């Protein structure tokens, strides 16, 4: 049996979980599911309004279900502790690869026969995240009365100590190498020009606002609005819905608005958006005004980092190779950390940094601190610059 997306599964009675050895024995189950797939759907339904979370949780649940029925020949509701230990090793190297891993070069749609559950082996951090999600799944199914016990409960590890400081950020030299690489991008053809201005706008947005990728693809240009501050200065802001469905407003500095106008003109739009405009913050190349996917934006960022890494390697020094490797390990989230690091290095008010990045608090006492928005905008404008 080849692995297929969960919505296409057609399992026999001995694999669908109706007679799973770990099924709950209570007389009052809290969900109507009779089969493992229905139980997973009931669990996933709780996250239907949060696409990023839904996709991530479905991916991990789907991988385990498919592995269980394909590799072990047993339903998910029959898994025991030892099975999950084997599965954790499988995550580090899904074999046979042709059976479980997508062909390199592109991400196949779930409806395509080339689709596979994995893009490659999972890094240790991704393995831990997968187990955390699956532990949550099993715990919920036990609480719902569908399962008798949680086979992962014996594997719970002590929580790791928090890192003393953020290390996943780009220092000034690496950040300058990234900007130089973007500035050197070709723009001879219309497509090259569109791509150049899109990349430039994306990196401006990520760095100047500290936004997450999910926030970039999940918000629109209609969130920009102008306001006259207490000193009579007209300033732009960007209202977004961020992590946890929380709304926050970000200072749209003069640099950011210049890049926005450039990007919009290149796409045949007016320099500044109208209130309530539905245009996504980032657009694909071409005339379609639709939001880009998370994976497509991550790919753009990784391509820029790779290009900058190759430029650094051209230096030929040993330390250059090490720095290039660090850049290749970077992700879009590193730009958020880089933005925060730069804000703090420029001696910005800690409360302003907190509010710009959408953090809950600076410390346990930060609930007594309040940030005045006009002052936050000025502080950001003066101390957090991109300087293409």
Topology of this structure?
Blueprint: H1 36-44, H2 51-72, H3 81-92, H4 97-100, H5 124-143, H6 172-183, H7 190-209, H8 213-218, E1 224-228, E2 234-241, E3 247-252, H9 254-266, H10 294-313, H11 318-329, H12 332-345, H13 350-357, H14 373-383
Antiparallel strand pairs: 1-2, 2-3
Helix pairs in contact: 1-2, 2-5, 6-10, 7-9, 7-12, 10-11, 13-14
Q: What do you see in this structure?
A:
The chain has 2 domains: 6-155, no CATH class; 172-383, hpI Integrase, Chain A (Orthogonal Bundle), CATH 1.10.443.10. Helix content is 47%, strand content 5%. The chain has helices at 36-44, 51-72, 81-92, 97-100, 124-143, 172-183, 190-209, 213-218, 254-266, 294-313, 318-329, 332-345, 350-357, 373-383, and strands at 224-228, 234-241, 247-252. A 3-stranded antiparallel β-sheet has the order 1-2-3. α6 crosses α10 (294-313) and α7 packs antiparallel against α9. It is globular. The N and C termini lie far apart (53 Å). Residues 157-165 and 362-370 have low confidence and may be disordered.
Helix content estimate: 40-55%
First CA to last CA: what distance? 53 Å
Q: For this structure, what is the CATH class of the largest domain?
A: Mainly Alpha
Number of helices: 14
Beta content: under 5%
**H/E element string?**
HHHHHHHHEEEHHHHHH
Identify the CATH architecture of the largest domain.
Answer: Orthogonal Bundle
| Bulk shape | globular
The fourth-level CATH homologous superfamily of the largest domain is Intergrase catalytic core
Give the strand line-up of the largest sheet. 1-2-3
Q: Please, how many domains? A: 2
Outline the biggest β-sheet. Answer: 3 strands, antiparallel
* CATH topology value of the largest domain: hpI Integrase, Chain A
């Amino acid at each position: 049996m080849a692995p297929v997306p969960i919505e296409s599964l057609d399992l026999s009675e001995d694999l669908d979980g109706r007679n799973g050895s770990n099924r709950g024995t209570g007389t009052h189950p809290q969900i109507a599911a009779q089969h493992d797939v229905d139980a997973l759907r009931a669990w996933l339904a709780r996250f239907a309004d949060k696409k990023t979370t839904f996709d991530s949780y479905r991916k991990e649940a789907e991988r385990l279900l498919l592995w269980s029925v394909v590799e072990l020949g047993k339903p998910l509701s029959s898994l025991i502790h030892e099975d999950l230990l084997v599965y954790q090793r499988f995550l580090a190297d899904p074999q046979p690869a042709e059976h479980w891993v997508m062909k390199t070069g592109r991400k196949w749609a779930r409806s395509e026969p080339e689709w596979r559950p994995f893009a490659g082996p999972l890094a240790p951090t991704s393995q831990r995240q997968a187990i955390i999600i699956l532990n949550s799944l099993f715990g919920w199914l036990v609480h719902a009365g569908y399962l008798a016990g949680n086979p992962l409960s014996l594997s719970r590890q002590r929580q790791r100590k928090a890192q003393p400081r953020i290390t996943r950020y780009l220092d000034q030299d690496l950040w300058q190498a990234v900007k130089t690489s973007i500035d050197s991008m070709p723009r001879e053809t219309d497509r090259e020009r569109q791509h150049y201005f899109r990349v430039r706008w994306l990196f401006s947005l990520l760095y100047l606002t500290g936004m997450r990728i999910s926030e970039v693809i999940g918000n629109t240009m209609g969130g920009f609005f102008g306001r006259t501050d207490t000193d009579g200065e007209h300033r732009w802001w960007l209202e977004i819905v961020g992590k946890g469905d929380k709304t926050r407003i970000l200072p749209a500095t003069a640099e950011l608005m210049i890049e926005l106008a450039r990007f919009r003109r290149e796409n045949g739009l007016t320099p500044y958006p109208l209130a309530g405009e539905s245009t996504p913050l980032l657009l694909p190349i071409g005339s379609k005004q639709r939001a880009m996917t998370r994976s497509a934006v991550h790919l753009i960022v990784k391509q820029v980092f790779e290009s900058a890494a190759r430029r650094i390697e051209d230096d030929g020094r040993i330390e250059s190779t090490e720095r290039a490797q660090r850049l290749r390990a970077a992700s879009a989230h590193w730009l958020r950390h880089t933005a925060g690091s730069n804000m703090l290095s420029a001696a910005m008010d800690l409360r302003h940094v907190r509010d710009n990045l959408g953090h809950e608090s600076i410390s346990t006492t930060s609930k007594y601190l309040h940030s005045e928005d006009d002052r936050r905008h000025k502080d950001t404008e003066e101390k957090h610059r991109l300087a293409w």
